[in-house]
Write a structure and sequence with these properties.
single chain, Beta-lactamase, 5-stranded antiparallel β-sheet, two-stranded antiparallel sheet, 14 helices, 10% strand
């Protein structure tokens, strides 16, 4: 923009940008209105701090692979990331140890079991995948660092690269996770019994509780998704969050294992790499195009946000986002965004 731009010209330019965003914002607004009265499901209460969430919170955010952002509803409300963190710590482990070493410790097979099931693949002596709690604990155990504070610091720095800003742990959620995490401790001890985790697995459990307690917003989830959509580079800061060669492995695990034991139907009907968390967040990725963040704390029986699943299903249907979708008569997402590309 020229230094000689007058206040009137600047106001006109801002007005054009706002009006250019109207088509896609209008679509998101209609989806928000369509599903805001959907009150199926309940807020997670097995972690006391999560039970304090307002069940009416509901936000939708999209961030494109070139950094355009679109938000409706409660897109700036902070909540704990919970299991949405799992693919990204898996990515950090891949960078620390390489693919084959990580796969020797954690599998990539989907299961039909609940995310917190005390079930292990005894044939391969590994947890089934990094998206269930057992696999996520084993993955956290692979995060390098000279000591525990350094490991936590490296994890937080990694999430900051994805989100584009510094992130923090909600200490109340962390303490609540730690106080009620007996099942996860049982999983950790069982894995230690079989040699699936190291001797510092109790410290790794603490790291796992920390990662689940990171505060994010719906917009953050969309930005994190957009970073994966952009080959691992944050589209706003241009900072690389993960090596490009590992992005496809995160997306593959998210597609096949990311939505708890709803993953198969999600892949079949919606067809997007995604990860949900019991805090009510869902991140979905349209490779090469955008990240989607949805936040609504009411969960279905499998632990996924009820409204979040519906929003992603409708976006996939409207715009033909299913990764195996043939070219058809869907609305063009790019056409709704195109007017924003001002010259």
């Amino acid at each position: 923009m020229s230094q000689d731009t007058s206040p009137d010209e600047l106001e006109l330019l801002v007005g054009r940008m706002r009006s250019a965003a109207a088509p896609l914002r209008g679509t998101l607004g209609r989806l928000h209105e369509q599903f805001c009265n959907l009150r199926d499901g309940t807020v997670a209460n097995y972690i006391p701090e999560l039970a304090k969430a307002d069940p009416e919170w509901f936000g939708i955010s999209l961030v494109t692979a070139d950094g355009q952002a679109f938000d409706v509803g409660d897109s700036d409300v902070k909540f704990s990331i919970q299991s949405v963190s799992k693919p990204f710590v898996f990515g950090l482990a891949l960078e620390d140890h390489g693919l084959e070493q990580v796969l020797a410790r954690v599998g990539v097979e989907p299961t039909g079991d609940a995310f917190n099931a005390i079930v292990l693949d005894e044939l391969s002596n590994r947890p089934f995948n990094p998206m269930v709690n057992a696999g996520a604990i084993a993955t956290a155990d692979l995060v390098n660092g000279a000591d525990y504070p350094e490991r936590v610091g490296r994890m937080l720095e990694m999430f900051a690269r994805y989100a584009g800003h510094e992130v923090f742990v909600d200490n109340k959620v962390f303490l609540s996770e730690r106080a009620t995490g007996h099942r996860n401790r049982a999983i950790g001890h069982l894995m230690r019994n079989f040699g699936m985790v190291s001797e510092h697995f109790e410290e790794s459990l603490e790291l796992y509780f920390q990662q689940c307690s990171i505060l994010v917003t719906c917009r953050d989830l969309a930005m994190i998704g957009a970073t994966l959509a952009n080959g691992g580079v944050n589209p706003v800061t241009s900072v690389r969050a993960i090596e490009a060669r590992y992005v496809k492995y995160l997306l593959s695990a998210m597609l096949t294992c990311g939505m708890y034991d709803h993953a198969g139907e999600w892949a079949f009907r919606i067809g997007l790499p995604a990860k949900s968390g019991v805090g009510g967040g869902i991140v979905a990725v349209v490779p090469g195009r955008m990240g989607i963040g949805v936040f609504s704390p009411r969960l279905d029986a499998k632990g996924n946000s009820v409204r979040g699943v519906q929003v992603c299903a409708e976006l996939s249907r409207l715009f033909g986002l299913h990764i195996f979708e043939a070219v058809g008569d869907h609305q063009s997402l790019e056409a709704q965004m195109q007017p924003q590309r001002l010259h």
